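Appendix C. Worked example: FERM domain containing kindlin 2
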Amino acid sequence: QLSSIPSAENQGRMHVTDLHRDVSLRVTGEIHIGGVMLKLVEKLDVKKDWSDHALWWEKKKTWLLKTHWTLDKYGIQADARLLFTPQHKLLRLQLPNMKHMKVKVNFSDRVFKAVSDICKTFSKSPVILSTLNNPRDPKKKKKKLEEAEEAALELEGPLLTPGSGSNPGLYSKTMTPTYDSRDGSPLSPTTAWFGDSPLSEGNPSILAVSQPISSPDILAKLYKSQSLLDKAKINQGWLDSSRSLMEQDVKENEVLLLRFKYHSFFDLNPKYDAIRVNQLYEQAKWAILLEEIECTEEEMMMFAALQYHINKLSIMSSGNHMNNSEKEVDEVDAALSDLEITLEGGKTSNTLGDITSIPELADYVKVFKPKKLTLKGYKQYWCTFKDITISCYKSKEEAHGTPSLQMNLRGCEVTPDVNISSQKFNIKLLIPVADGMNEIWLRCDAEKPYAHWMAACRLASKGKTMADSSYSLEVQNILSFLKMQHMNPDPQFIAEPAVTNDINSECLVSPRYLKKYKNKQISARILEAHQNVAQMSLIEAKMRFIQAWQSLPEFGITHFLAKFQGGKRDELIGITYNRLIRMDASTGDAIKTWRFANMKQWNVNWEIKMVTVEFADEPSLAFICAEVDCKVVHEFIGGYIFLSTRAKDQNESLDEEMFYKLTSGWV
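Step 2, the predicted output written as structure tokens:
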């Protein structure tokens, strides 16, 4: 114990990680941290640059970075074991494209800052990427990958090794060339993989090029069927953005997954964000191939056709991709300026249009109210859609009277149920009522009316009318999404065997389709679907893929296990960019939703792991985080609120302190 007499000296125990040496130092409680490090370096007498080293207090899991603080002020007793260790350590990151990259990362920075530094390579919006523990070990005790597994993961090429790079805007100082961990040699195979292009000199633009999956074995190894509960368990692994990697027991050389965390990509610009667009495309591609998100068979073939097209164009443009793409980007600029990906439904134009009249829809629509014990199907009504309300009448002539059924769609959940080949165009609505949600189905008889009604429902759920400038864009997006799924075999189009073999179809669809169909059948369907996308440029195809991914009903919902007040069993809380959803854990059905726009405040009781959310005009919501640290859940809510406060035309810098205020809970 440190004596209370100021002059009393004690033996401090230090371990120098670089030298694997234990050192004893005579120190008093009044000596400051900087002085301890100075004494230690003098005693070691090793000529070396120690400037990156700092002291780590093992027992309390704390970096001692305030070098002017004394041992007494930190509350460090003489028997405390301190590590003298570098702040920058190697980490193996698995990127969204499943490739691994060795990066030197600051283990003493908060994760938010460390990830921001890494992400300077990707884009100007680092906040949407974050790190996730490798989910291989279900108990969340992180293990190093076994050698065999490690080799399998590197079948696609060596580790991506970013150089120090001359462009400070693209590269952070924390990224330095690295050496093979097994034999210490420089990672020379990079030249074999990148060719003799400048990419091998640490140019990050290799991250903008999509690499086709080389073998179905890779897919088979990574694929495992997942229930919603499995997905919720993986989401427990998100790291805390406000604490450092070291504080969260991340070890040097460990594998962490780098992923887009918040599904809110409002400022995606194909002209400047080639890397971000590609890595987003890769995250979407793997989510679909590994069935992390549900899609229909027709949608799967459309995604496969887009992948086939992207692979083909990527190989054709290969090394010169970045140089050639300028012209290509300009060509699709006009087409994509209105396609800028946004979950709020597109860019808002400056023209207000005719503000005196709000467009309306009126048509015969089949309506179905699924209730237990009734087997009655759809019933045809004359339906009018005004503002955010649908009114249903028995006939067109009765439209001036009292409606048989009326629905206010604000805050409702809207889900498509579409099958183009059987001409099924259904819209499933879950409309909030006092005790939960009312389920209503609408059936349209063709694509065009479906697109208009679907777009109107989506906007109404956010409290917007068809007068909103994003309405026509939403209609166009729905129609183009449907068009890409059309199967219209051209009689002149005969697939040659060589072409069919070249397709590598078992790498383009999720494994369950390989059990259902023969490879030849899948290839034929992919080539058929390819006709709808064959004219697209590379960047447009990637943007379309991302947009189609966003159109899937399950897109952007992050699930966590939760116990709700009054509920007896585990349920799920789904968090999206604009709402919270209480969900049935086995079916994934929404039980109730709450919009962030309606939220007054939210609080966390850290002791009992309870999150309480208060709303302007409805009862408050309370749930206990089961199995997951409620800091993770709190950070998702705060992160989406933070993103919603950012203006589209804001400069590139992020308000780090504001992010911590909204996500930390104790800052």
